[in-house]
Write a structure and sequence with these properties.
Helices cover 62% and strands 9% of the residues. By secondary structure, the chain is mainly α. The protein is elongated and about 75 Å long.
Length: 133
């Protein structure tokens, strides 16, 4: 049997089950990317801490003030990435519309790229200060 043709010119309503499934997959994908970023930044931190002496510091100056940052500061980026990973797991994915999903993925990608880039830059600075690079 074939379905009768629709004579109504209004578009069919989107299937909410499909929207929920797409939202769930989007959130899972962002969570996986976040977890990969946490692992990568933690590995960078471990690699740098093992490679340079613990007493190695990097000078950071801002607004005419200078600070000596210890190697332990490399633990900050994985710790900053952890709360978004946890909270995206608690968030209900059924309330993300198509536009919100696109914005969510774009913002998450930019955020994760900036955080991993910052960790790489700090790790490189510590390796240079320790005489490794």
């Amino acid at each position: 049997m074939t379905e009768p043709e629709r004579t109504d010119p209004t578009p069919a309503p989107p299937d909410t089950r499909d929207e929920t499934a797409v939202s769930r997959r989007t959130v899972q994908g962002v969570r996986r990317a976040n977890l990969a970023s946490i692992v990568a930044t933690a590995l960078i931190a471990v690699l740098v801490v093992v490679s340079v002496p613990v007493s190695t510091t990097v000078e950071y100056s801002r607004l005419s003030r200078g600070w000596d940052l210890p190697v332990v500061i490399l633990a900050v980026v994985p710790l900053v990435l952890l709360p978004p990973y946890i909270t995206t797991g608690k968030r209900g994915s059924q309330d993300l519309r198509a536009r919100e999903r696109k914005v969510f993925v774009l913002v998450a990608c930019i955020y994760l790229a900036l955080m991993v880039g910052a960790q790489v830059a700090m790790g490189w600075g510590f390796l240079r200060a320790g005489g490794i690079w």
